[in-house]
Amino acid sequence: MIKYDIRDSEEVKNLCDLATQICGIRKGSLAYKSRKEQYTIPRSVVAVIARKELKIHHDAIAKELNRDRCSIYHYEGKHEANYISYPKYREVFNSVYNAYSDIKKNKKIIKDPTEMINHLIHSGVRHSRRPTMQINIETNKFKIRIDTDFKDFSNNMDICHEVLKDYECKIYVKS
Questions:
Q1: pTM value?
Q2: Architecture of the domain whose range is 8-105
Q3: What band does 1 get if pLDDT is binned at 50, 70 and 90?
Q4: If I label 29, which of 37, 47, 66, 161 is the partner at 20 to 30 A Cα–Cα?
Q5: Closest CA to 38 of 23, 28, 16
Q6: In the chain, domain spans
């Protein structure tokens, strides 16, 4: 089973925006079909960071970059050789990676599951007595499950997404 974080596409878009800003190219241009170096290097860098750091699935990255998943496998496989032998690639990779790392350092961390559950309940998330779906939230230290039904699912997802946007975690859905 492929696990998709609800925020994967948003994370890739944010990485793309960061890379285009650093490289001085138009926002959204990494999805162009162009093979010009000014687009291919940052596109490859975004794919590698999304895979290695964020553990985002190839399909989700490919969708945002307007490529097929085989291209993402290619970028990932060529990363080490490009980094060693291609100075421009190395420069762009280091710049984007360092900027991404600075942003990641500013994300908040919830220390224990009770704190997260209380935070979500105070924000309006409701547990269901007869769940038909689950919202799973993972951090580096723990996982929690929110039992929900179809009636409350959209509202609970919106609340989780909004409340946890500044936190270091992943959100998955299981039906």
A1: 0.79
A2: Orthogonal Bundle (1.10)
A3: very low
A4: 161
A5: 23
A6: 8-105, 113-174
